[in-house]
Amino acid sequence: MICALSAFFVWLFLRRVDFNEIGSIWRSIPPVYPLLFVLIALPQFALRSFRWGLLLRPFKRHIPFRSLWNFSLIGFMISYLLPGRLGEIARPVLLAEKEGIKKSQAIATVINERLFDLLTVLVLLTAYLLSGAGRPSPVLLQLKTALFFLLPLVFFVFFLVALANSPRFLPWTEKLIRACARLLPASFRERTIDFAGHFVRALRLDLGWKGIAAVGGCSLLHWGIITFSYWLLMHGFAGVRLALPDVIPFLSVIFVAAAVPTPGMAGSMDLAAKYALTGLFGISTKTAVAFTILFHFLVLLSPIALGLIALWREGLSIHTVRRMEKKDELPAVR
């Protein structure tokens, strides 16, 4: 179903595209811009790996950066090559198996990581909108509406996690988990209760204020570098000259589109990027399509190439991950 939806999105994106015009636009791009875009991906992944280590510290103080780097890239590669965002589950499970921590705890850190990503992008968008930058457009209005609902929602999720783990409400949380588990077959019940209990407790950001500030700082720097890389690639296209902050609403649209679980974000990100470029900046359709195809290719290039290297360094294969999924090892708690 997801693959069929992805194919439909790709068809919508590519229909009535003149590839002769697209090729002419690509030939006019100075090679330094795509090259720098690919190179800037390295500090992005380094920061993301380091931040993941910070989130994992309550469960294991010292995890080698090599493991964090390798499994972060493996996760991105799997998510880009396979449908369903499987990499978001595979990377914490594989890391947990290697580093001897509970899988439920490692999976919880990925949830918190994504919440920090969403919060950071929303904070950047809020700052941009409050500055009054950007020309009025339907796309910008839609982003304002989404921001109005999403920003309070993220804070509410953090509040619920803190409340569920508070000394007063934790017994009620455990009772709720047990009540829900009664719907499952008896053979899975206790294991599920154990997993869910560890998972909910692991969602609590037991890092202290300094640790939370460090995670927040890494998130801002990470998404700042991504924003800069998008802005840099846009400068390779004739007639596209934007101020750096103007890329933030485009980043926000891409962030939402990337959450759609199509393989390699095919179709979903393409339509979103084309829609944002034409709607936010008034860029011509042919330039928007040319940028989007190159942009999408470069976004996938680094994590897939580096992920394959990381997979080899860890002595793993794609077949290992698919076998892990089929054996239903993901909910196991060690």
How would you portray this structure in words?
It is a single chain. The protein is 76% helix and 0% strand. With 334 residues, the chain is mainly α. It has one domain. The protein is globular and about 60 Å long.
Give keywords:
334 residues; mainly alpha; 14 helices; 0% strand; globular; disordered C terminus
Ordered list of secondary-structure elements with their pairings:
Blueprint: H1 2-14, H2 19-27, H3 32-56, H4 65-81, H5 87-99, H6 103-130, H7 138-164, H8 170-181, H9 186-203, H10 208-234, H11 247-258, H12 268-281, H13 285-313, H14 318-326
Helix pairs in contact: 1-12, 2-13, 3-4, 3-6, 3-10, 3-13, 4-5, 4-13, 5-6, 6-7, 6-9, 6-10, 6-11, 8-9, 11-12, 12-13
Describe the structure concisely for a colleague.
With 334 residues, this protein is mainly alpha-helical. It has one domain.
